[in-house]
Prior knowledge:
- The protein has helices at 2-17, 24-53, 101-107, 110-117, 132-142, 156-159, 166-171, 219-224, and strands at 58-59, 65-68, 71-74, 84-89, 122-128, 147-150, 173-176, 179-182, 191-197, 203-210.
- It is of the alpha+beta class and 258 residues long.
- The strands form 3 sheets. The protein has a 6-stranded mixed beta sheet.
- A hairpin with a 2-residue loop joins strand 2 and strand 3 (71-74).
Amino acid sequence: MEKQLDTMADRLEEGLATHRAVSREEWTKARKDLLKKEKELTRLNDELSRQRRELPWVKVDKAYIFEGTEGKLWLSDLFYGKSQLIVYHFMFAPEWEEGCPGCSFLADHIDGANLHLKHHDVSVVVVSRAPLEKLLAFKKRMGWKFNWVSSYGSDFNYDYHVSFTNEQLKNGTIYYNFEYSKHDEGSESPGTSVFYKDRTGNIFHTYSSYSRGGDILIGAHNYLDLTPKGRNEDGTMDWMRHHDKYEDFKGDSGCCSH
């Protein structure tokens, strides 16, 4: 693995060594041309966000029970007094001893955002199928503060298409990211789901995204995208590790490279 990474780094450095260098005037012209495209992308993203808000909703009539530090919780409890709920579907199967590295990478960004989101009528809750004691132990290890609840024994993960039954895995076909596809990567996949609770207590499912849809929540990627070397990866997030494993990591992350 280390030799492979060295080869990747050498290949990138070789490319940067021959990168074109120009005068300040020529650079400014090229930068302004790119700025036009960046502004266009910003406007397109604003329009996409507007269309996302206008999606129709689905009323949630099914009862889901979770386990948190407060005990048994209903889906309505996860709003914690807010009207909007963002659920991150964190890959952590009941038999695993630690959470998915890719999901952990995203989760590293939640607490900073939560300093502000909780003051803007938004509750962010992480949900996984692993038993609560495993979630809390891993949460302590990683130093996270966000609310993390267990959906163990609930249909929640299956109904929102981020966990897959033994029968689905045996057949080799799953429904994920709004389509049926072949799958041989285990029982869990990542995703984000959004819910709204009206003043009478009705809950609606408003949005879900899967696979690389979660990229928008990973601030580190936005920083890397500003740099000459970019994300510097041969595969999606192949460089990423649990944040406490960077110095002594010896193996493959083996997760979340959908």
